[in-house]
Amino acid sequence: xxxxxxxxxxxxxxxxxxxxxxxxxxxxxxxxxxxxxxxxxxxxxxxxxxxxxxxxxxxxxxxxxxxxxxxxxxxxxxxxxxxxxxxxxxxxxxxxxxxxxxxxxxxxxxxxxxxxxxxxxxxxxxxxxxxxxxxxxxxxxxxxxxxxxxxxxxxxxxxxxxxxxxxxxxxxxxxxxxxxxxxxxxxxxxxxxxxxxxxxxxxxxxxxxxxxxxxxxxxxxxxxxxxxxxxxxxxxxxxxxxxxxxxxxxxxxxxxxxxxxxxxxxxxxxxxxxxxxxxxxxxxxxxxxxxxxxxxxxxxxxxxxxxxxxxxxxxxxxxxxxxxxxxxxxxxxxxxxxxxxxxxxxxxxxxxxxxxxxxxxxxxxxxxxxxxxxxxxxxxxxxxxxxxxxxxxxxxxxxxxxxxxxxxxxxxxxxxxxxxxxxxxxxxxxxxxxxxxxxxxxxxxxxxxxxxxxxxxxxxxxxxxxxxxxxxxxxxxxxxxxxxxxxxxxxxxxxxxxxxxxxxxxxxxxxxxxxxxxxxx
Length: 521
What we know:
Helices cover 31% and strands 19% of the residues. The chain is of the alpha/beta class. The protein folds into three domains: 7-96, no CATH class; 99-154 and 467-521, Urease, subunit C, domain 1, CATH 2.30.40.10; 155-254 and 327-464, TIM Barrel (Alpha-Beta Barrel). The strands form three sheets. Strands 3, 4, 5, 6, 7, 16, 17 and 18 form an eight-stranded mixed beta sheet that branches. Helix 10 links the parallel strand 13 (352-356) and strand 14 (374-376). The radius of gyration is 30 Å and the shape is globular.
Protein backbone atom coordinates (compact mmCIF):
# COMPACT_ATOMS: atom_id res chain seq x y z
CA UNK A 1 0.00 0.00 0.00
CA UNK A 2 1.31 3.44 -0.88
CA UNK A 3 0.56 6.35 1.47
CA UNK A 4 0.96 9.89 0.22
CA UNK A 5 2.77 12.40 2.47
CA UNK A 6 0.44 13.60 5.14
CA UNK A 7 -1.99 10.69 4.74
CA UNK A 8 -2.36 7.79 7.14
CA UNK A 9 -4.61 4.77 6.79
CA UNK A 10 -5.87 2.39 9.45
CA UNK A 11 -6.86 -1.15 8.72
CA UNK A 12 -10.06 -1.26 6.66
CA UNK A 13 -10.88 2.36 7.52
CA UNK A 14 -10.93 5.52 5.42
CA UNK A 15 -7.74 7.53 5.21
CA UNK A 16 -7.39 10.57 7.49
CA UNK A 17 -5.22 13.59 6.87
CA UNK A 18 -2.57 14.39 9.45
CA UNK A 19 -0.55 17.61 9.35
CA UNK A 20 3.06 16.68 8.74
CA UNK A 21 4.10 19.31 11.27
CA UNK A 22 2.34 17.24 13.94
CA UNK A 23 4.90 14.48 13.53
CA UNK A 24 7.83 16.86 13.25
CA UNK A 25 6.92 18.54 16.54
CA UNK A 26 6.12 15.14 18.10
CA UNK A 27 2.92 16.43 19.62
CA UNK A 28 0.70 13.47 18.87
CA UNK A 29 2.74 10.72 20.54
CA UNK A 30 3.40 12.89 23.61
CA UNK A 31 -0.30 13.46 23.98
CA UNK A 32 -1.03 9.75 23.80
CA UNK A 33 1.13 9.10 26.84
CA UNK A 34 0.11 12.26 28.62
CA UNK A 35 -3.63 11.44 28.32
CA UNK A 36 -3.12 8.53 30.76
CA UNK A 37 -2.25 10.84 33.63
CA UNK A 38 -3.80 14.12 32.52
CA UNK A 39 -6.57 13.98 35.12
CA UNK A 40 -4.02 13.20 37.87
CA UNK A 41 -2.06 16.37 37.07
CA UNK A 42 -5.21 18.43 37.19
CA UNK A 43 -6.10 16.96 40.57
CA UNK A 44 -2.61 17.89 41.77
CA UNK A 45 -3.08 21.44 40.54
CA UNK A 46 -0.45 21.13 37.83
CA UNK A 47 -1.17 22.75 34.48
CA UNK A 48 -0.79 20.22 31.64
CA UNK A 49 2.31 20.89 29.59
CA UNK A 50 0.92 18.97 26.61
CA UNK A 51 -1.25 20.74 24.05
CA UNK A 52 -4.81 19.44 23.52
CA UNK A 53 -5.21 16.49 21.12
CA UNK A 54 -5.24 17.11 17.40
CA UNK A 55 -8.52 16.17 15.74
CA UNK A 56 -6.88 14.25 12.91
CA UNK A 57 -5.11 11.17 14.24
CA UNK A 58 -3.81 8.32 12.09
CA UNK A 59 -1.67 5.27 12.01
CA UNK A 60 1.52 6.85 13.23
CA UNK A 61 -0.01 7.55 16.64
CA UNK A 62 -0.20 3.82 17.40
CA UNK A 63 3.35 3.66 18.74
CA UNK A 64 4.76 6.53 20.86
CA UNK A 65 8.06 4.67 21.15
CA UNK A 66 8.75 5.54 17.53
CA UNK A 67 8.78 9.25 18.52
CA UNK A 68 10.73 9.43 21.78
CA UNK A 69 10.52 12.78 23.56
CA UNK A 70 11.10 13.88 27.16
CA UNK A 71 7.75 13.38 28.88
CA UNK A 72 6.83 13.64 32.54
CA UNK A 73 6.12 10.22 34.08
CA UNK A 74 2.87 9.63 35.96
CA UNK A 75 2.89 10.22 39.69
CA UNK A 76 0.67 7.30 40.61
CA UNK A 77 0.79 3.54 40.08
CA UNK A 78 -2.57 3.45 38.20
CA UNK A 79 -1.25 6.00 35.76
CA UNK A 80 1.93 4.00 35.33
CA UNK A 81 0.02 0.83 34.51
CA UNK A 82 -2.08 2.71 31.98
CA UNK A 83 1.04 4.02 30.28
CA UNK A 84 2.51 0.50 30.24
CA UNK A 85 -0.68 -0.79 28.61
CA UNK A 86 -0.35 1.80 25.90
CA UNK A 87 3.23 0.69 25.22
CA UNK A 88 2.16 -2.95 25.05
CA UNK A 89 -0.50 -1.97 22.55
CA UNK A 90 2.20 -0.15 20.59
CA UNK A 91 4.39 -3.23 20.28
CA UNK A 92 1.45 -5.42 19.27
CA UNK A 93 0.61 -2.97 16.48
CA UNK A 94 4.22 -2.94 15.27
CA UNK A 95 4.33 -6.75 15.16
CA UNK A 96 1.11 -6.79 13.12
CA UNK A 97 2.78 -4.62 10.47
CA UNK A 98 5.47 -7.19 9.67
CA UNK A 99 5.20 -9.43 6.62
CA UNK A 100 2.52 -12.07 6.96
CA UNK A 101 3.54 -15.67 6.41
CA UNK A 102 1.14 -18.13 4.80
CA UNK A 103 1.58 -21.89 4.77
CA UNK A 104 -0.23 -23.84 2.06
CA UNK A 105 -0.43 -27.46 3.12
CA UNK A 106 -1.98 -30.76 2.08
CA UNK A 107 -1.98 -30.20 -1.70
CA UNK A 108 -0.10 -32.01 -4.43
CA UNK A 109 2.48 -29.39 -5.38
CA UNK A 110 3.38 -29.29 -9.09
CA UNK A 111 6.59 -27.27 -8.94
CA UNK A 112 7.05 -27.64 -12.75
CA UNK A 113 10.78 -26.88 -12.51
CA UNK A 114 11.35 -29.77 -10.11
CA UNK A 115 9.70 -32.89 -8.71
CA UNK A 116 6.01 -33.03 -7.83
CA UNK A 117 5.44 -33.22 -4.07
CA UNK A 118 2.56 -35.49 -3.01
CA UNK A 119 1.63 -33.94 -0.68
CA UNK A 120 3.79 -30.90 -0.17
CA UNK A 121 3.86 -27.54 1.57
CA UNK A 122 4.56 -24.02 0.31
CA UNK A 123 5.56 -21.16 2.61
CA UNK A 124 4.78 -17.64 1.41
CA UNK A 125 6.40 -14.58 2.99
CA UNK A 126 5.75 -11.02 1.85
CA UNK A 127 4.28 -12.15 -1.45
CA UNK A 128 7.18 -14.45 -2.37
CA UNK A 129 7.73 -18.17 -2.05
CA UNK A 130 10.14 -18.79 0.81
CA UNK A 131 10.17 -22.58 0.90
CA UNK A 132 8.77 -25.60 -0.95
CA UNK A 133 9.17 -28.89 0.88
CA UNK A 134 7.38 -32.07 1.82
CA UNK A 135 7.21 -30.73 5.37
CA UNK A 136 7.98 -27.21 6.55
CA UNK A 137 8.44 -26.83 10.31
CA UNK A 138 8.41 -23.03 10.37
CA UNK A 139 5.41 -21.58 12.20
CA UNK A 140 3.22 -19.43 9.92
CA UNK A 141 0.74 -16.67 10.69
CA UNK A 142 -1.90 -18.37 8.54
CA UNK A 143 -2.28 -21.99 7.53
CA UNK A 144 -4.38 -22.85 4.47
CA UNK A 145 -5.45 -26.49 4.27
CA UNK A 146 -5.68 -27.70 0.66
CA UNK A 147 -6.14 -31.43 1.28
CA UNK A 148 -6.87 -33.32 -1.92
CA UNK A 149 -6.19 -30.35 -4.20
CA UNK A 150 -3.44 -29.63 -6.74
CA UNK A 151 -1.22 -26.56 -6.53
CA UNK A 152 0.11 -25.06 -9.78
CA UNK A 153 2.03 -21.94 -10.83
CA UNK A 154 -0.14 -19.43 -12.67
CA UNK A 155 -0.75 -20.13 -16.35
CA UNK A 156 0.61 -17.69 -18.97
CA UNK A 157 -1.14 -16.85 -22.25
CA UNK A 158 1.88 -15.91 -24.33
CA UNK A 159 0.17 -14.43 -27.41
CA UNK A 160 -3.40 -13.20 -27.21
CA UNK A 161 -5.84 -10.36 -27.87
CA UNK A 162 -7.21 -10.61 -24.33
CA UNK A 163 -7.97 -7.13 -23.03
CA UNK A 164 -7.76 -5.59 -26.50
CA UNK A 165 -10.99 -7.05 -27.91
CA UNK A 166 -14.21 -7.45 -25.95
CA UNK A 167 -17.01 -8.10 -28.44
CA UNK A 168 -15.74 -8.79 -31.92
CA UNK A 169 -18.93 -7.57 -33.59
CA UNK A 170 -18.78 -4.14 -31.90
CA UNK A 171 -16.07 -1.88 -33.34
CA UNK A 172 -15.93 0.32 -30.24
CA UNK A 173 -14.69 -2.63 -28.16
CA UNK A 174 -11.86 -3.55 -30.55
CA UNK A 175 -8.51 -1.84 -29.94
CA UNK A 176 -6.05 -4.44 -31.20
CA UNK A 177 -4.71 -2.67 -34.29
CA UNK A 178 -3.29 0.67 -35.36
CA UNK A 179 -3.43 2.52 -38.66
CA UNK A 180 -0.34 1.99 -40.81
CA UNK A 181 1.92 -0.87 -41.86
CA UNK A 182 4.93 0.09 -39.72
CA UNK A 183 4.12 1.23 -36.17
CA UNK A 184 6.87 -0.12 -33.88
CA UNK A 185 6.24 2.56 -31.25
CA UNK A 186 2.71 1.26 -30.52
CA UNK A 187 2.49 -0.06 -26.94
CA UNK A 188 -0.23 -2.70 -26.73
CA UNK A 189 -0.32 -2.86 -22.93
CA UNK A 190 -1.51 0.75 -22.74
CA UNK A 191 -4.63 -0.16 -24.75
CA UNK A 192 -5.74 -3.04 -22.52
CA UNK A 193 -9.14 -2.57 -20.90
CA UNK A 194 -8.70 -3.37 -17.16
CA UNK A 195 -12.49 -3.73 -16.83
CA UNK A 196 -12.78 -6.36 -19.56
CA UNK A 197 -15.20 -9.11 -18.62
CA UNK A 198 -12.99 -11.62 -20.42
CA UNK A 199 -10.06 -11.15 -18.02
CA UNK A 200 -11.86 -12.51 -14.92
CA UNK A 201 -13.15 -15.41 -17.02
CA UNK A 202 -9.59 -16.32 -18.00
CA UNK A 203 -8.43 -15.86 -14.40
CA UNK A 204 -11.11 -18.28 -13.18
CA UNK A 205 -9.45 -21.09 -15.14
CA UNK A 206 -5.92 -20.53 -13.83
CA UNK A 207 -4.52 -17.86 -16.17
CA UNK A 208 -2.58 -15.25 -14.17
CA UNK A 209 -0.51 -13.53 -16.89
CA UNK A 210 -1.00 -12.70 -20.55
CA UNK A 211 0.80 -10.97 -23.40
CA UNK A 212 -1.56 -8.63 -25.34
CA UNK A 213 -0.34 -8.53 -28.94
CA UNK A 214 -0.93 -5.60 -31.35
CA UNK A 215 -1.92 -6.45 -34.90
CA UNK A 216 -2.96 -4.78 -38.13
CA UNK A 217 0.31 -4.02 -39.92
CA UNK A 218 3.58 -5.68 -40.84
CA UNK A 219 5.48 -4.22 -37.87
CA UNK A 220 2.49 -3.86 -35.55
CA UNK A 221 4.10 -2.65 -32.34
CA UNK A 222 5.34 -3.87 -28.96
CA UNK A 223 3.79 -6.00 -26.26
CA UNK A 224 4.15 -6.08 -22.48
CA UNK A 225 3.52 -8.87 -19.98
CA UNK A 226 0.46 -8.22 -17.82
CA UNK A 227 -1.18 -9.78 -14.78
CA UNK A 228 -4.92 -10.46 -14.61
CA UNK A 229 -5.46 -8.43 -11.43
CA UNK A 230 -5.32 -4.65 -11.06
CA UNK A 231 -7.28 -1.41 -11.22
CA UNK A 232 -5.36 0.18 -14.07
CA UNK A 233 -3.03 -0.86 -16.88
CA UNK A 234 -0.13 0.47 -14.79
CA UNK A 235 -1.13 -1.87 -11.95
CA UNK A 236 -1.42 -4.81 -14.32
CA UNK A 237 1.77 -4.36 -16.33
CA UNK A 238 4.55 -6.63 -15.07
CA UNK A 239 7.22 -6.14 -17.74
CA UNK A 240 7.36 -3.74 -20.67
CA UNK A 241 8.23 -3.94 -23.43
CA UNK A 242 8.70 -7.65 -24.00
CA UNK A 243 8.78 -8.12 -27.77
CA UNK A 244 8.31 -6.44 -31.14
CA UNK A 245 5.66 -8.06 -33.33
CA UNK A 246 6.23 -8.65 -37.02
CA UNK A 247 3.57 -10.20 -39.28
CA UNK A 248 5.29 -11.59 -42.36
CA UNK A 249 3.55 -11.03 -45.70
CA UNK A 250 1.66 -14.05 -47.00
CA UNK A 251 3.56 -16.37 -49.34
CA UNK A 252 0.61 -18.16 -50.91
CA UNK A 253 -0.63 -17.49 -54.43
CA UNK A 254 -4.29 -17.12 -55.33
CA UNK A 255 -4.94 -19.68 -58.08
CA UNK A 256 -8.57 -18.72 -58.73
CA UNK A 257 -9.23 -17.87 -62.42
CA UNK A 258 -10.20 -14.33 -63.36
CA UNK A 259 -13.73 -15.46 -64.25
CA UNK A 260 -14.47 -16.24 -60.58
CA UNK A 261 -13.67 -12.71 -59.39
CA UNK A 262 -16.66 -10.43 -58.96
CA UNK A 263 -14.35 -7.43 -59.23
CA UNK A 264 -12.12 -8.27 -62.20
CA UNK A 265 -9.73 -5.42 -61.34
CA UNK A 266 -8.60 -7.31 -58.21
CA UNK A 267 -7.43 -10.35 -60.14
CA UNK A 268 -3.64 -10.68 -60.40
CA UNK A 269 -1.50 -13.07 -62.37
CA UNK A 270 1.01 -15.36 -60.65
CA UNK A 271 3.84 -13.07 -61.75
CA UNK A 272 2.15 -10.00 -60.29
CA UNK A 273 1.41 -11.76 -57.01
CA UNK A 274 5.01 -12.97 -56.71
CA UNK A 275 6.31 -9.49 -57.49
CA UNK A 276 4.04 -7.92 -54.88
CA UNK A 277 5.22 -10.44 -52.30
CA UNK A 278 8.88 -9.68 -53.05
CA UNK A 279 8.23 -5.96 -52.73
CA UNK A 280 6.66 -6.39 -49.30
CA UNK A 281 9.55 -8.48 -48.05
CA UNK A 282 12.03 -5.96 -49.45
CA UNK A 283 10.16 -3.12 -47.70
CA UNK A 284 10.41 -5.01 -44.40
CA UNK A 285 14.15 -5.57 -44.84
CA UNK A 286 14.67 -1.91 -45.73
CA UNK A 287 12.74 -0.84 -42.65
CA UNK A 288 15.03 -2.81 -40.35
CA UNK A 289 18.09 -1.56 -42.23
CA UNK A 290 17.02 2.03 -41.66
CA UNK A 291 16.39 1.25 -38.01
CA UNK A 292 19.87 -0.22 -37.72
CA UNK A 293 21.38 2.86 -39.36
CA UNK A 294 19.49 5.08 -36.92
CA UNK A 295 20.75 3.01 -33.98
CA UNK A 296 24.34 3.35 -35.22
CA UNK A 297 23.93 7.10 -35.53
CA UNK A 298 22.66 7.28 -31.97
CA UNK A 299 25.51 5.14 -30.73
CA UNK A 300 28.13 7.17 -32.58
CA UNK A 301 26.79 10.42 -31.23
CA UNK A 302 26.26 9.25 -27.67
CA UNK A 303 23.03 9.35 -25.75
CA UNK A 304 22.28 12.91 -26.82
CA UNK A 305 24.01 12.70 -30.17
CA UNK A 306 20.95 13.59 -32.24
CA UNK A 307 19.13 16.91 -31.83
CA UNK A 308 15.69 16.61 -30.27
CA UNK A 309 14.03 17.53 -33.55
CA UNK A 310 15.71 14.55 -35.23
CA UNK A 311 14.73 11.95 -32.61
CA UNK A 312 12.03 9.78 -34.14
CA UNK A 313 9.85 7.70 -31.74
CA UNK A 314 9.41 4.85 -34.23
CA UNK A 315 13.17 4.47 -34.68
CA UNK A 316 13.79 4.87 -30.95
CA UNK A 317 11.45 1.94 -30.32
CA UNK A 318 13.41 -0.19 -32.78
CA UNK A 319 16.86 0.29 -31.19
CA UNK A 320 16.80 -2.60 -28.65
CA UNK A 321 15.50 -5.02 -31.29
CA UNK A 322 18.04 -4.31 -34.02
CA UNK A 323 20.76 -4.57 -31.37
CA UNK A 324 19.43 -7.98 -30.29
CA UNK A 325 18.65 -6.88 -26.75
CA UNK A 326 14.99 -7.90 -27.04
CA UNK A 327 13.26 -10.58 -29.12
CA UNK A 328 11.22 -10.06 -32.26
CA UNK A 329 8.06 -12.19 -32.30
CA UNK A 330 7.40 -13.25 -35.89
CA UNK A 331 3.84 -14.33 -36.64
CA UNK A 332 3.92 -16.85 -39.48
CA UNK A 333 1.98 -20.00 -40.38
CA UNK A 334 3.00 -21.07 -43.86
CA UNK A 335 6.10 -23.22 -44.30
CA UNK A 336 7.58 -20.71 -46.75
CA UNK A 337 6.97 -17.87 -44.30
CA UNK A 338 8.70 -19.77 -41.52
CA UNK A 339 11.76 -20.58 -43.65
CA UNK A 340 11.98 -16.96 -44.75
CA UNK A 341 11.75 -15.76 -41.14
CA UNK A 342 14.53 -18.11 -39.99
CA UNK A 343 16.82 -17.00 -42.82
CA UNK A 344 16.06 -13.34 -42.15
CA UNK A 345 16.84 -13.72 -38.44
CA UNK A 346 20.05 -15.63 -39.07
CA UNK A 347 21.26 -13.09 -41.63
CA UNK A 348 20.63 -10.12 -39.35
CA UNK A 349 21.48 -11.80 -36.02
CA UNK A 350 18.01 -11.13 -34.66
CA UNK A 351 16.60 -12.98 -31.69
CA UNK A 352 13.17 -14.24 -32.78
CA UNK A 353 10.20 -16.16 -31.39
CA UNK A 354 7.90 -17.90 -33.87
CA UNK A 355 4.16 -17.47 -33.17
CA UNK A 356 1.25 -19.06 -34.96
CA UNK A 357 3.50 -21.80 -36.36
CA UNK A 358 0.90 -23.91 -38.14
CA UNK A 359 3.46 -25.58 -40.42
CA UNK A 360 6.34 -25.50 -37.93
CA UNK A 361 6.26 -29.30 -37.60
CA UNK A 362 7.47 -29.51 -41.20
CA UNK A 363 10.67 -27.59 -40.45
CA UNK A 364 11.23 -28.74 -36.86
CA UNK A 365 14.90 -29.49 -37.48
CA UNK A 366 15.55 -26.03 -38.91
CA UNK A 367 13.91 -24.37 -35.88
CA UNK A 368 15.85 -26.56 -33.44
CA UNK A 369 19.18 -25.84 -35.17
CA UNK A 370 18.58 -22.11 -34.88
CA UNK A 371 17.22 -22.42 -31.31
CA UNK A 372 13.95 -20.68 -32.12
CA UNK A 373 11.14 -21.24 -29.59
CA UNK A 374 7.62 -21.73 -30.93
CA UNK A 375 4.29 -20.40 -29.64
CA UNK A 376 1.98 -22.98 -31.18
CA UNK A 377 -1.50 -21.51 -31.67
CA UNK A 378 -3.02 -24.09 -34.00
CA UNK A 379 -4.19 -26.94 -31.78
CA UNK A 380 -7.81 -25.89 -32.28
CA UNK A 381 -7.45 -22.58 -34.10
CA UNK A 382 -5.96 -24.17 -37.20
CA UNK A 383 -6.75 -21.42 -39.68
CA UNK A 384 -7.17 -17.70 -39.30
CA UNK A 385 -10.32 -18.22 -37.21
CA UNK A 386 -11.81 -20.98 -35.07
CA UNK A 387 -12.00 -23.45 -37.95
CA UNK A 388 -11.13 -26.99 -36.91
CA UNK A 389 -10.25 -28.11 -40.43
CA UNK A 390 -6.57 -28.74 -41.24
CA UNK A 391 -4.95 -26.41 -43.76
CA UNK A 392 -4.83 -29.10 -46.47
CA UNK A 393 -7.23 -31.94 -47.05
CA UNK A 394 -4.29 -34.30 -47.62
CA UNK A 395 -3.22 -34.00 -43.96
CA UNK A 396 -4.30 -36.39 -41.26
CA UNK A 397 -7.05 -35.04 -39.03
CA UNK A 398 -4.76 -35.15 -35.96
CA UNK A 399 -1.72 -33.54 -37.60
CA UNK A 400 -1.84 -30.41 -35.44
CA UNK A 401 -2.59 -32.36 -32.26
CA UNK A 402 0.64 -34.30 -32.77
CA UNK A 403 2.70 -31.33 -34.03
CA UNK A 404 3.95 -30.22 -30.56
CA UNK A 405 5.45 -33.65 -29.92
CA UNK A 406 7.13 -33.57 -33.34
CA UNK A 407 8.68 -30.22 -32.44
CA UNK A 408 9.71 -31.40 -28.97
CA UNK A 409 11.46 -34.50 -30.33
CA UNK A 410 13.47 -32.24 -32.64
CA UNK A 411 14.56 -30.12 -29.67
CA UNK A 412 12.21 -27.13 -30.05
CA UNK A 413 10.78 -25.40 -26.98
CA UNK A 414 6.99 -25.40 -27.42
CA UNK A 415 4.61 -22.89 -25.82
CA UNK A 416 0.84 -23.02 -26.20
CA UNK A 417 -1.59 -20.19 -26.88
CA UNK A 418 -4.96 -19.65 -28.53
CA UNK A 419 -4.12 -17.15 -31.25
CA UNK A 420 -5.23 -13.59 -31.95
CA UNK A 421 -8.61 -12.00 -32.56
CA UNK A 422 -11.86 -11.56 -30.69
CA UNK A 423 -12.96 -15.19 -30.80
CA UNK A 424 -9.58 -16.36 -29.55
CA UNK A 425 -9.65 -13.77 -26.73
CA UNK A 426 -13.03 -15.07 -25.59
CA UNK A 427 -11.80 -18.67 -25.56
CA UNK A 428 -8.30 -18.15 -24.13
CA UNK A 429 -9.72 -19.58 -20.90
CA UNK A 430 -9.34 -22.97 -22.64
CA UNK A 431 -5.55 -22.63 -22.73
CA UNK A 432 -4.87 -25.68 -20.49
CA UNK A 433 -6.95 -27.87 -22.80
CA UNK A 434 -4.79 -27.00 -25.81
CA UNK A 435 -1.83 -28.38 -23.85
CA UNK A 436 -3.94 -31.36 -22.75
CA UNK A 437 -4.84 -32.19 -26.36
CA UNK A 438 -1.16 -32.24 -27.30
CA UNK A 439 -0.48 -34.49 -24.29
CA UNK A 440 -3.17 -36.88 -25.51
CA UNK A 441 -1.31 -37.18 -28.82
CA UNK A 442 2.16 -37.97 -27.54
CA UNK A 443 3.57 -34.90 -25.79
CA UNK A 444 4.72 -35.81 -22.22
CA UNK A 445 2.41 -34.31 -19.62
CA UNK A 446 5.31 -32.55 -17.90
CA UNK A 447 6.21 -30.82 -21.17
CA UNK A 448 2.57 -29.88 -21.79
CA UNK A 449 2.41 -28.24 -18.36
CA UNK A 450 5.70 -26.41 -18.94
CA UNK A 451 4.28 -25.13 -22.23
CA UNK A 452 1.72 -23.02 -20.36
CA UNK A 453 3.84 -22.07 -17.32
CA UNK A 454 7.64 -22.19 -17.28
CA UNK A 455 8.44 -22.03 -21.01
CA UNK A 456 6.38 -18.89 -21.72
CA UNK A 457 7.95 -17.25 -18.67
CA UNK A 458 11.40 -18.06 -20.07
CA UNK A 459 10.85 -16.77 -23.59
CA UNK A 460 9.17 -13.61 -22.27
CA UNK A 461 12.02 -12.85 -19.88
CA UNK A 462 10.08 -13.35 -16.65
CA UNK A 463 11.32 -16.76 -15.50
CA UNK A 464 13.01 -15.17 -12.49
CA UNK A 465 9.59 -14.13 -11.16
CA UNK A 466 6.92 -16.54 -12.41
CA UNK A 467 6.44 -19.85 -14.21
CA UNK A 468 7.19 -22.37 -11.47
CA UNK A 469 6.82 -22.95 -7.74
CA UNK A 470 10.25 -22.48 -6.24
CA UNK A 471 11.84 -20.31 -3.53
CA UNK A 472 12.49 -16.71 -4.49
CA UNK A 473 9.73 -16.42 -7.07
CA UNK A 474 6.45 -14.58 -6.70
CA UNK A 475 3.70 -16.49 -4.95
CA UNK A 476 1.46 -16.49 -8.02
CA UNK A 477 -0.20 -19.87 -7.80
CA UNK A 478 -3.62 -21.50 -7.83
CA UNK A 479 -5.28 -24.56 -6.37
CA UNK A 480 -7.52 -26.87 -8.43
CA UNK A 481 -9.59 -29.85 -7.37
CA UNK A 482 -7.85 -32.05 -9.95
CA UNK A 483 -5.29 -32.13 -12.75
CA UNK A 484 -5.50 -28.77 -14.55
CA UNK A 485 -5.10 -30.58 -17.88
CA UNK A 486 -8.34 -32.43 -17.14
CA UNK A 487 -11.37 -30.50 -18.37
CA UNK A 488 -13.37 -31.77 -15.39
CA UNK A 489 -11.11 -29.97 -12.90
CA UNK A 490 -12.05 -26.60 -11.42
CA UNK A 491 -9.85 -23.85 -10.03
CA UNK A 492 -10.82 -23.27 -6.41
CA UNK A 493 -8.43 -20.62 -5.10
CA UNK A 494 -5.76 -18.31 -6.51
CA UNK A 495 -2.99 -16.14 -5.10
CA UNK A 496 -1.25 -13.42 -7.11
CA UNK A 497 1.86 -12.04 -5.49
CA UNK A 498 0.84 -13.73 -2.23
CA UNK A 499 -2.56 -12.04 -2.18
CA UNK A 500 -5.64 -14.18 -2.64
CA UNK A 501 -7.82 -12.92 -5.48
CA UNK A 502 -11.44 -13.47 -6.35
CA UNK A 503 -12.44 -16.04 -8.95
CA UNK A 504 -15.76 -14.36 -9.59
CA UNK A 505 -16.57 -13.63 -13.23
CA UNK A 506 -19.49 -12.85 -15.45
CA UNK A 507 -20.00 -16.58 -15.81
CA UNK A 508 -20.28 -17.20 -12.07
CA UNK A 509 -22.54 -14.17 -11.55
CA UNK A 510 -24.94 -15.35 -14.22
CA UNK A 511 -24.85 -18.85 -12.77
CA UNK A 512 -25.78 -17.59 -9.30
CA UNK A 513 -28.43 -15.30 -10.74
CA UNK A 514 -30.28 -17.97 -12.68
CA UNK A 515 -29.77 -20.64 -10.05
CA UNK A 516 -31.87 -18.46 -7.76
CA UNK A 517 -34.60 -17.82 -10.32
CA UNK A 518 -38.20 -18.45 -9.20
CA UNK A 519 -39.29 -22.03 -9.66
CA UNK A 520 -42.35 -22.89 -11.70
CA UNK A 521 -45.21 -23.85 -9.43
